[in-house]
Design goal:
This protein is an alpha/beta fold. It has nine helices and eight strands.
């Protein structure tokens, strides 16, 4: 993976990205990484309960969801997990439904990204019970009222609550020139570039990527070298365009 990245840089197919230059200096310093290099989301040991006016008996029959809350723009804010209790009989089956219900009916200050609700846009990627999911496709376990924990994508800068900064990820994606390139072009009005069934099948498993960055932020190599390593999502996208017979 790293050798492919270096080869792409040598051939000028990708260009150095200045966005993470400061982080690059820190990660490649002689000082060994420490807990200070780990995102605040991993160091939070503080949980508080949102006051919904519920008794202990009422809470016992509801689904508890602990959600990471942080506002870096507020110097007085302390990153924490906030507990909410949800009646799943009055809520949709997915974790995105839970988040929408909390924002609409319980706590309007909660921030998260969402759009299509169909697993196509990739907006609602987050960490749910220790695994990265699209919240719109992650079902709440039926009949399970045990605590679930929702936090942002790992090793990404938090803008607010479950919203992370995707700027570096998108900048790396832009570097690979994610579009078809041809040395020659057909005259206007000519038929489209056709593919055989075999050529089209080569794209299966590649074109479906929705750029949610779930795999990217799960990759340990990307955690420590985000300024050099493009990461699994971007490298897969680069391969998707290289392997396309129309390119």
């Amino acid at each position: 993976m790293f050798s492919l990245t270096r080869n792409l840089m040598r051939s000028n197919l990708i260009r150095p990205n200045p966005i993470m230059s400061g982080l690059s200096t820190r990660l490649h310093s002689t000082k060994a990484p420490s807990v200070a290099d780990v995102g605040d989301v991993f160091k939070v040991d503080y949980t508080e309960e949102f006051d919904q006016g519920l008794s202990e008996e009422e809470k016992a029959g509801l689904k508890r969801v602990d959600i990471y809350r942080s506002n870096p723009n507020d110097p007085e804010d302390r990153p924490k997990y906030v507990s909410y209790y949800i009646d799943m009989a009055k809520c949709g089956p997915m974790f995105l439904d839970v988040l929408i219900k909390i924002k609409d009916e319980i706590d309007p200050t909660l921030s998260f990204r969402r759009s299509c609700r169909e697993g196509i846009c990739g907006s609602c990627s987050m960490n749910i019970d220790g695994r990265h999911h699209l919240a719109c496709l992650a079902p709440v376990p039926k009949g399970n009222i045990e605590k679930s924990t929702v936090s942002p994508l790992m090793m990404m800068f938090v803008l607010k609550d479950l919203v992370v900064d995707m700027s570096h990820f998108y900048a790396q994606y832009k570097q690979i020139d994610p579009y078809l390139k041809r040395k020659d072009s057909k005259p206007e009005g000519a038929e489209e570039y056709l593919q055989t069934m075999e050529e089209r099948k080569l794209l299966d498993g590649l074109y479906e990527c929705v750029l949610c960055a779930s795999c990217q932020s799960t990759c340990p190599s990307y955690w420590w070298h985000p300024q050099d390593y493009l990461g699994p999502a971007v490298l897969m996208q680069a391969y998707r365009w290289v392997i396309d017979s129309r390119d």
